[in-house]
Amino acid sequence: MRMRRKNNLDARIAAHPHYLLLTEQGYYEEPEKRHGKFDLTAVFGNANPVWLEIGCGKGSFAITLAGQNPNINVLALEVVSNVIIDGLERAEEAKPRNLRFINCLAEHIDEYFDEGSFERIYLNFSCPYPKNTYSNRRLTAPRYLRLYRKMLSGGGTIYQKTDNRKLFEFSIENFSREGYIIHDVSLDLHHSEYKEGNIITEYESRFISQGLPIYRLEATPREEQ
Which pTM does this prediction carry? Predict the structure, then answer.
């Protein structure tokens, strides 16, 4: 079911220019709105490593991550304007200096940032797109993994969490095929050594209350010979 558009959404989004780097609304229809690539050192005012969350939802994970890691810069990407507004408004309350948001499609990140920009990429509870006809939309489909490889810095790592076993298996298969080294895997995160330090997302809290296992892994691109 489609989410009902929030009242005064455009004005509310426009009220957060410090935290929102870009929204793609009208971006391709109006070429004069195109920004080009961001200088992340200029954006954050420092050269600290940048961690990217793709599909940040309402922003709780990104805000917590930024608060716990003051020497890291956090970029939170969300395609749905109706959702990212919650993250922007929460950020205005928490006021983390090392957090910014971008409202765009994940496949466009190389249009806005240089290759090797990110030390980490987080994929938290991405949409599983259960129908096989939509498998190319899954954020661990081969086309995305090739993009992430470009955007990760040397030794950079992808961190994935999901409640969906089929998506997890799909991800492992594609990470392997695309030349990633898979490590630190858990089939039940909250009954494993990886529970310590784990930041619980909104979806994750719901799944835990239902007694569902959370799957997690880390994947690092294999160095090309």
Answer: 0.94
Instruction: Give the separation between CA 90 and CA 79, rounded to whole angstroms.
Output: 17
By DSSP bridging, strand 20-23 and strand 50-54 are unpaired
Q: Nearest CA to 181 among 220, 223, 224, 225?
A: 220
Quote the pLDDT of residue 3. 65
Cα torsion angle, 3, 60, 137, 171, sign = negative
Domain boundaries of the chain, sorted by first residue? 9-221
Q: Angle between the 81-94 and 60-68 helix axes, to the nearest 10 degrees?
A: 30
Nearest to 125 by CA among 195, 199, 183: 199
Residue 145 has a pLDDT of 98
Quickly name the fold that domain 9-221 has. Answer: Rossmann fold (3.40.50)
pLDDT digits (tens, 9 = 90+) for 140-171: 999 999 999 999 999 999 999 999 999 999 99
**pLDDT tens sequence across 90-111:** 999 999 999 999 999 999 999 9
CB 138 within 8 A of CB 129: yes
Q: Report how far residue 159's alpha carbon sits from residue 183's, in angstroms, rounded to the nearest whole number.
A: 10
Neighbour count for residue 145 (Cβ, 10 Å):
20
pLDDT for 34 beyond 70: no
Pairing of strands 20-23, 152-162: unpaired
Tell me 199's DSSP state.
P
CA–CA distance, 58 with 108 (Å, rounded to integer):
20
